[in-house]
Predict the structure.
Amino acid sequence: MKKLAGKVAIVSGSGRGIGRACALKLAAEGARVVVNDLDAAPATETVDAIRAAGGEAIAVVGSVTDSDFAARFVGAAIDTWNGLDIIVNNAGYTWDAVIQKMSDEQFDAILDVHLKAPFRILREAIGFIREAAKREAEAGQEIFRKVVNVSSISGTNGNPGQTNYSTAKAGVTGMTRTLAKEWGRYKVNVNAVAFGYIVTRMTQATGPGGATVDIGGRTLPAGVPAQQVRMMEAGIPLGRGGTPEEAANAIYLLCTPEADYVSGQVLMVTGGL
C-alpha cells in the first residue's frame, strides 16, 4: 500500500522545480494532485507526467496572487475528488535589492506571493477541513491532514539583498506555528520546511549578464553568478546544493503517517549549512 493512497493534495507552483518534484513524489505515493503554475504548458507537463506513471492529477493555471485563485485551487480538489488532505504552499520567486534600492512594489509583490497567497489558500481550505473533521470525530475516526509551507533560511537567518523575501519567509514561520495551534483540534499537522541552496532555474549558476524569467509581466533576474554558487557550496557540509527531488522528499516526509504527531515545526533542509 502506498503511504498516501486515497489522499488528495494541492501543490502551488508545481509546474517546475521543487513544486514539480513534490507533485510527482506525492502522486507516486498514491495521492491525487491538483497541480498549479502561472503558465499552462508546465502545469500540463506535470499533469501528463503523473498520469503517464499511473497517477491522477488535474491542473489549475494562474497566479496564486489573484483574488479568486484560492477558491479555484481548493475548489478543484473538492469538486474533483471530494477531499482535501494535503496542502503544500510552494509557489514563489525572488526579486532582490538592498533596502535603499527596493521599491514598495518590489516589497509588496514578494510578500503577496510568499505570505498572503498561502494565507488565502489556507483560509479558503479551513471550511472544508473543519466540517470533515467534525464528521470524522463524530464517527470515532482520527484522520490527520497535512499542511507544509515552504520557507527558507533567508527567513530564519536573514540574507543581504532580500529584505522582502526574508520578511515573507519569516512570516511563513509565524503563520505555520499559529495554525498548528489553531488547527490541532481538527487533526491537522501544520509544518514548514526551510530550504538552503536548492538548485532550480531560479538559483542555477549563471555567467556574465545572467538569465531572466518573466513573472506577471515583469522580466526579473534568475540564477546566481557561478562564483557565488561556488562560495555557497563551499559552506555546505555535504559539499553541494540540493536537488529539487531532495527538497521534495523533505516535504513528503511531513505528509506521511509517520509525521502524525509532528506539528508546528520548521524542518531545516540545508545539507548541514
Remarks:
- The chain has eight helices and eleven strands.
- The domain at 8-198+242-269 is CATH 3.40.50.720 (Rossmann fold).
